[in-house]
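Fold Annotation — chain and its backbone
Encoding — discrete vocabulary of local shapes
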Amino acid sequence: MQGNPLPADAGSRDLFLTVRRQYPEIYACTRQISRFLQERYGWTCTEEEELYLTMHIHRVKSEQKPGEDAEQFKDNPRIVTRTQFAGRHPEHCPAAL
């Protein structure tokens, strides 16, 4: 399974590298998702798709207020917390259990 990648563009490559470097913790989460998709469904994420995921993970994380626990998101069907993901796929997130 593979989507149609955007045409190669130096600007988008630079943006991807910048975001990856500026947000290593969030990009690590993106890589976990990317590995899961590859192992489970044979889907190889492009850099553009990883950039998209990283930006949206950053948005969700930035909406969390200081002191809030991720458990508050457990009833939101649009958000799967790391603990919920790990419960379903412990092989991808052993540190979350």
Observations:
- DSSP finds four helices and no strands in the chain.
